[in-house]
Design brief:
heterodimer; A: 760 residues; alpha+beta; 12-stranded antiparallel beta sheet; B: 757 residues; 6-stranded antiparallel beta sheet; 16 strands
């Protein structure tokens, strides 16, 4: 049978294996020490916890894949999410598997080293150069620190390098077309992943797209290839490099949204429709509430503007002061404002101006676009109580409705019958608003049953209507209220009232409104009514005839809303002790203290290997000088290099210097608070440059053997120095051993570096 | 409107002629360019010999007796441009929109009062000059928009801006003619600009934009003309256009910093040009050096010199103290007549026992201030408030003491690193800080006034540090940047610039910042210094030299620019709004009883621009693809592709440079910022549409494609004219009901809900 011997021929790149082993060793050893929260773990940790509990959140700092990868590590380690991530340095309890939390970033960080090796080979450099590049990455203290904790930069760098490597495999491809396009597909996947981990991945992605389109352009110019083949290849490239990353990016969000089902801390940033798709929170309140708003409905109106904070239309028993501090007069009627907290004062009743009653007919008469309505403030305790007995009120809302009736300012008012008693109609008149005097004041008009003026009539304008006679739907309809008398629109002005208005948000009516201004829009959030047939408690079922059939919000709607919120929600600019500017990164002006032991001077800093940092800067400068000289000489007709060598030199420049530029220059325009770790992707590119440049110098620039030898010696010495300085700074990288004050002082090579010293 | 009708009919006819005439443009170019000895001659004659255009030669033959129709066209463009811009120049006779700023600043020049503005001075200087020449005496206060001018002579300033604005269509015409050698393209551009309501409105008032755009277009025109001269290097006309380019660049930058974009455009072009010369191996390196130096001279040194000259004139003219003083450093203020620092004398080095005022170095930073009021309940410790106050009063005075109360006889000088105690002169409280959160900036510590009669506690001690100084350095009055570091907590005295609420009298917050950063917010400057025991020296010797003044005023301007942040309550205009003409700007009037002017581009024109931008990208990519793929192309098409790529590329670059940077700006943006970019877009439109219509023979055979060409031009012309007729009230003013009411002159024209007329 077996005619031929069973032979296994394996080519093992021992260099690669050794490098990988060393890399894993430097990144993974003692991974769970320190057993304390280190720097931004405190930030990412809270999201990991929320993933474990499957609670929805919004994080504007980056897309979702990064958090998910961290959460995956936590999930594998059996982390249950029960840890309060409240401060840096807090000890992890014994139940938390710290090792698994940090494992994935560490492995990604470790894999960057062999990737650097392969990438340099793919740039047509020698194995020696590849070894050099890998060693530079291996001994870079900042990369090690960033990899060893639950942080995202190492994951990002891993995907970036893998994307570049697979693209170069595709481009240099000598394999079958299928295999080549498999590499291209991998490249697209990695780009999608990189952008999914951090938005800064976009810069490298753009670089890659630039290089790819240049190559495609050359392909188009290649007249030996048939038209058809060119078309097919272009389409394939476009699919792999454009479509796949975009689809993947959306796919991360799909996983994100399918994982996070429960309502959570950031619900209020989202629209009511979005919130109602989450379990718990608003959807628990609104589940089963009627869909169409009818005359007599009781509603809470939420402003669609979530800036500066989400709030609900509110009135409370306090009047506008007769005179403001600047001497202007007011109507001295009851204040109407927008309250950022949910309370009973947020309830309003929709009233038909032509009828007296405040209950809903049977069948309910829906309110439609263009109808004129009155808004009556306040609820009676009868209503509240009956609602309470109905049982659909959750104790989950301690701060709400009947449950905390003891705190109601309306106690006396609530116990009386609404038809006979005073009630407040929302009205507006030609009196300047308290903070924004260019707009009209909005007030609660006391005693509206007596003098039925037209001041409190509002026309309903449903902005997202599909038909002209569209009925007003809770949650989904975005409405504007137009004051009939003055045709001014009810608006959240964005400023806060002073102390007399309890610092609530000011609500005004403004004549000149823009069609798209979100501050004019309001949404019915909570909604309920009962019919004339009797109190709800008696036949609780009848009041809820057209129950909100839970319209599930489509993924696409949720995705676009979440994406928009992530890009537009702005956190207040915070200063940070360790923040730095892009120009300071190049010279490593600042370090970042990541962690310090509770009792000793053991500490971890994000600080690069100063020698390799310097070498990288030198080679960056050298490349610029050499390339300028080459360019000018070529322009003047001197061909110093063969065309192939020149192309190779340019390609190295594109990947390394181009990658560095794309990852540094955009930060110069940003106004965010930036940190040294933002520079790490750029630094990785730069470390790949040095060996390639040395090789070029050695092969093309130095002709005499003596010079070449001198260069080799220099390179070896530099490598040795890099090893030394790695060793020197490793106590700050690994947090052990503890250093004395004197040793720290010795390490403080720059005055601007800030090491910590525990007072004895 | 009755004036408009015959005018537009006239244009209709002439256009018709020109449409015919432009068929023989290539015939005429040689005629025109004979005297210019144009190098384009070569490819034009190439065009001539095209076989595909039978009708074309006949056509041109029949018109051969026209000597120079380009002159006629030019006169027509000039005439129309001036008449549309100068029509109703005096209406409305009240202050419109930003006239309140720039008119006022013009008046300051006439009155020689110092002021501060975020833009460089040339524009306002020219406005002032125009006002002065036309008999305006600088007395009108320009308080707010809507103020009636009454007997004041305002038309001169408006007219000056309008005249400069009238050159825009003319320049655009010439630029496009130069780039494409097609009268049709040039005429399309000129028409689009002449009948654009936005372009008319923005050039009719006392604003910087018409002046800025004048210089931008002049720079582009001279650059294009200069390029044209490349076959006659170092000839007189070559030098002339080079120098004109440099002058226009200086002018553009001297009006607004937006001028940097056109400098960038010219710079990139020059770099490309030099690169081309470098590659020309028939030229020696010495020749290249000559070219290089000539450009350095004309495009860098000359503009720099002119720019500095503008500032020299600015500072020489404005020598009286005025509203701008507070924005500048103490040293700067000492130059101004009427300022309390002018010709003042005081001891030169800070000493113990002195009475001082301290001014924050941030832009418009206030004086360290305190008063008889406590922080309210709930805001840190209930101790006396410390604020920063922008005006000068006696509550800004502080006494410098040693930490211990012993007062030695001889006045010792304060040195870098010394510990001092600052006592508020009026209330005798010490400057104090402690670990309570500051009222507004929560991460900082609160600063209070504490103690009585100078007796406080250890938290009243501050360490004096001179920025960049060493231990033992003396503290110079006015010149040293001083940092006060709180000894107990190590934080530095900081002015955040945030406004305190009512309880703090809306003065600025002062905190103690734990973040030790080199920022002007934590640096202070000793401004007034009284010490009877020390000899006063005249601080006129401290007067900064011109270079320092220049640098400082630039820093102040740049900071002022970035300080113009949109307020939360204001609706901010976004850059993506602009090209789609999403929303205009109210120049004058709101209600139906007022005379209303609304800055909004003619929607037909603007949407044509947008459409041609997309069309341009499509056409240029198709053309490049065809060339890259090596498809055989007729000579005419190759020429079209060349015009699209080089001429169109230049204009597209101009558009991008004048538009894209706004996306990265965090300052408040307005619709009118788009107008320079719009000019480039309209020139691009001219070239694109012209080539599109000329490529009609791809679809139809010779006689029909010619008809299509003329038909297309007619449709475009009529659409532009009719839309101008519809929308002209936006520029020339409207009264009566608003557009949503039927009686309005703009009834039914509110095509977008976001337009506010």
């Amino acid at each position: 049978m077996l005619q031929l011997p069973l032979v296994v021929t394996a080519h093992i790149d021992v260099l690669l294996l050794v490098l990988s082993a060393l890399s894993l060793w430097t990144r993974l050893s003692h991974l769970s020490s320190p057993r304390a929260v280190v720097f931004d773990e405190v930030y990412y940790g809270q999201f990991v916890s929320l993933y474990m509990k499957r609670v929805f959140f919004v994080d504007d700092s980056g897309p979702v894949l990064g958090h998910m990868i961290l959460a995956l590590g936590a999930y594998l380690g059996g982390f249950d999410g029960n840890f309060a991530w409240n401060r840096i340095g807090a000890e992890y309890p014994s139940g938390v598997c710290v090792w698994s939390l940090r494992l994935i970033p560490a492995i990604c960080g470790a894999l960057c080293v062999p990737l650097g090796y392969l990438l340099t080979l793919e740039l047509h450099c020698s194995h020696l150069s590849a070894l050099g590049a890998a060693v530079l990455l291996l001994l870079e203290n900042s990369l090690i620190v960033q990899s060893r904790f639950m942080l995202l930069e190492s994951v990002l760098i891993f995907f970036l390098l893998l994307a570049l490597y697979s693209y170069l495999r595709f481009h240099n491809g000598v394999h079958s077309p299928t295999l080549r396009y498999a590499w291209l597909l991998l490249c697209g996947v990695c780009c999608g992943a990189a952008v999914g981990v951090k938005y800064t991945g976009v810069f490298s992605y753009l670089l890659l797209l630039g290089v790819a389109s240049l190559h495609t352009w050359n392909l188009i110019g290649d007249r030996t290839v048939s038209h058809l083949s060119v078309c097919v290849q272009c389409v394939c490239r476009a699919v792999c490099l454009l479509l796949v990353p975009v689809l993947l990016y959306v796919f991360w969000f799909y996983i994100h949204l399918s994982l996070l089902k429960h309502s959570g801390p950031h619900d209020q940033l989202m629209s009511p429709a979005f919130q109602s798709s989450l379990q718990g929170g608003l959807s628990r309140i609104t589940r089963g509430q009627p869909m169409e708003v009818a005359y007599g409905s009781q509603v809470t109106l939420r402003s669609s503007a979530s800036q500066p904070m989400p709030c609900w239309l509110n009135s409370h028993r306090a009047n506008y002061p007769i005179r403001y501090e600047n001497g202007r007069g007011s109507s001295h009627q009851q204040q109407v404002a927008c309250s950022p907290s949910k309370d009973v004062n947020n309830w309003w009743i929709i009233k038909d101006p032509h009828r007296r009653g405040l209950t809903v007919d049977r069948p309910p008469r829906p309110v439609r676009h263009g109808d004129v309505i009155q808004l009556v403030h306040g609820t009676t305790s009868r209503l509240l109580n009956s609602w309470d007995e109905d049982g659909s009120l959750d104790t989950w809302r301690p701060n709400f409705c009947g449950v905390d009736e003891r705190t109601l300012p309306f106690n006396g008012f609530c116990s009386s019958e609404i038809e006979e008693d005073i009630s407040l109609g929302l009205c507006s008149h030609d009196v300047a608003a308290p903070i924004s005097p260019q707009a009209q004041e909005v007030s609660g008009f006391v005693d509206f049953n007596v003098s039925m003026t037209a001041q409190d009539l509002w026309r309903l304008d449903i902005a997202n209507r599909e038909a002209e006679s569209e009925s007003w739907k809770s949650i989904s309809s975005e409405i504007r209220l137009i004051h009939v008398n003055t045709s001014a629109g009810l608006k959240l002005s964005g400023s806060a009232l002073p102390a007399w208005g309890f610092h609530l948000m000011e609500v005004v009516a403004e004549k000149h409104f823009r069609a798209d201004a979100v501050s004019f829009f309001w949404t019915v959030e909570e909604h309920r009514y009962w019919t004339t047939e009797g109190p709800a408690g008696a036949d609780g079922g009848s009041q809820l005839e057209d129950k909100q059939t839970h319209r599930s919000v489509s993924f696409w709607t949720k995705f676009t809303e979440l994406q928009r919120k992530m890009l537009t929600v702005k956190q207040e600019e915070t200063e940070h002790k360790y923040s730095s500017t892009p120009l300071e990164w190049i010279t490593m002006e600042t370090n970042i203290a990541y962690w310090m032991d509770k009792s000793s001077n053991a500490q971890i800093h994000l600080i690069g290997n100063p020698v390799s940092w310097g070498v990288a800067n030198l080679s960056l400068l050298a490349y610029h000088i050499i390339v300028s000289v080459y360019l000018v000489r070529r322009r003047r007709g001197f061909r110093d290099l063969t065309e192939a060598a020149w192309q190779h030199f340019v390609c190295v420049g594109c990947v390394c210097v181009g990658g560095w530029m794309m990852n540094v220059l955009p930060f110069l325009l940003m106004e965010k608070t930036l940190f040294l770790y933002h520079y790490l992707p750029a630094l990785t590119h730069l470390h790949l440059l040095t060996p390639a440049l040395l090789e070029h110098t050695h092969n093309h620039l130095l002709s005499s053997l003596t010079h070449q030898r001198a260069l080799r010696v220099c390179a070896a010495v530099a490598l040795l120095l890099i090893l030394c300085s790695y060793w020197f700074f490793s106590p700050l990288t690994y947090g052990c051993p503890e250093l004395s004050a004197n040793q720290l002082q010795v390490l403080r090579w720059r005055n601007s570096w800030d090491f910590l010293l525990r007072r004895q | 409107m009755e004036k408009e009708e015959p005018l537009s009919q006239l244009t209709g006819k002439t256009w018709d002629d020109s449409a015919v005439r432009c068929r023989k443009v290539p015939q005429n170019i040689p005629v025109v360019s004979k005297d210019k000895n144009s190098p384009t001659h070569g490819h034009v004659s190439e065009d001539d010999t095209q076989p595909s255009n039978g009708s074309y030669t006949q056509d041109s033959a029949s018109h051969h007796h026209y000597v120079s129709p380009s002159k006629v066209l030019l006169v027509l463009v000039v005439g129309l441009s001036f008449s549309t811009r100068l029509y109703k120049i005096k209406e409305p006779p009240h202050v419109c929109w930003d006239e309140t700023h720039f008119g006022k600043m013009g008046s300051y020049y006439i009155n020689r009062t110092f002021f501060f503005d975020v833009h460089p001075p040339l524009g306002k200087m020219l406005i002032g000059l125009a006002g002065y020449m036309t008999g305006y005496n600088g007395t009108f206060p320009f308080i707010k928009p809507g103020d009636k001018y009454e007997h004041h002579n305002y038309w001169g300033m408006r007219g000056f801006c309008a005249v400069l604005g009238s050159f825009l269509p003319v320049f655009a015409y010439l630029i496009v003619l130069e780039l494409s050698h097609s009268h049709t393209a040039a005429l399309i551009t000129a028409t689009l600009l002449i009948f654009d309501t936005g372009c008319i409105t923005i050039t009719q008032y006392i604003l910087l934009d018409p002046i800025l755009m004048f210089f931008i277009m002049a720079a582009v025109l001279s650059m294009v003309k200069f390029k044209q001269q490349r076959y006659r290097p170092f000839a007189a006309s070559w030098w002339l256009w080079l120098v004109l380019t440099g002058m226009s660049l200086a002018g553009a930058l001297g009006v607004k910093f937006v001028g940097l974009f056109v400098i960038l455009l010219v710079g990139l072009n020059t770099a490309a040009d030099l690169w081309r010369i470098l590659g020309d191996l028939s030229l020696s390196l010495v020749d290249f050096g000559k070219h290089f130096l000539a450009r350095v001279l004309g495009l860098i040194l000359l503009p720099l010199f002119l720019y500095v000259t503008i500032f020299t004139v600015h500072f020489a003219v404005l020598n009286k103290s005025g509203p701008g003083d507070g924005f500048f450093s103490s040293a700067f203020q000492s130059r101004l007549i009427g300022n309390n620092l002018h010709n003042a004398s005081m001891p030169e080095y800070l000493a113990y026992g002195s009475t001082i005022t301290m001014k924050n170095l941030r832009i418009a930073g206030g004086y360290l201030h305190s008063h008889w009021h406590l922080y309210p309940e709930g805001v840190g410790a209930k101790q006396q408030q410390i604020t920063a106050y922008l005006h000068k009063d006696y509550n800004n005075l502080w006494l410098v003491h040693r930490p211990n109360k012993t007062q030695s006889g001889s006045p010792d000088l304060v040195r870098h690193g010394d510990l001092i105690r600052l006592e508020h002169k009026e209330t005798t409280r010490n400057l104090h800080s402690h670990v309570h959160e500051a009222p507004l900036t929560k991460k900082h510590h609160q600063v209070t006034g504490y103690g009585i009669n100078g007796t406080g506690d250890a938290n009243d001690l501050w360490q004096v540090e001179v920025c960049g100084g060493h231990k033992g350095d003396l503290v110079k009055v006015l010149r040293s940047k001083v940092r006060l570091r709180h000894r107990a907590t190590g934080c530095v005295l900081f002015s955040s610039g945030k406004i305190l609420p009512k309880w703090g009298w809306e003065q600025e917050e002062v905190t103690c910042s734990p973040y030790i950063k080199e920022t002007p917010s934590s640096q202070w400057n000793i401004e007034d210094h009284f010490n009877p025991k020390l000899p006063n020296i005249s601080i006129s010797i401290l007067k900064p030299n011109f270079l320092e003044v220049l640098v400082e005023s630039h820093i102040v301007m740049i900071r002022g620019n970035s300080g113009l942040k949109p307020k939360n309550s204001e609706m901010n205009s976004k850059p993506w709004h602009w090209p789609i003409n999403y929303q205009g700007l109210r120049f004058s009037g709101v209600n139906d009883t007022e005379y209303r002017v609304y800055l909004l581009g003619n929607p037909v024109v603007w949407w044509t621009h947008l459409f041609s931008l997309a069309l341009y990208l499509l056409m240029v990519s198709v053309a490049s693809l065809a060339i890259q793929r090596g498809l055989p192309l007729a000579a005419k098409r190759v020429e079209h592709a060349r015009v699209l790529k080089s001429g169109g590329g230049l204009l597209l670059l101009g558009w991008l440079l004048h538009y894209v940077p706004f996306y990265t700006m965090s300052r408040i943006l307005y619709y009118h910022h788009y107008f320079p970019a719009m000019l480039f877009n309209s020139m691009l439109t001219g070239i694109t549409l012209d080539i599109l219509l000329k490529s009609a023979d791809l679809l139809l055979r010779p006689p029909y494609c010619d008809w299509l060409f003329r038909f297309g031009l007619m449709v475009l012309l009529l659409a532009v004219l009719y839309s101008f007729y519809l929308f002209h009230p936006l520029s020339y003013g409207m009264m009566g009901p608003l557009s949503h009411e039927p009686g309005s002159s703009m009834a039914g024209l509110k095509w977008l809900a976001s337009w506010e007329f």
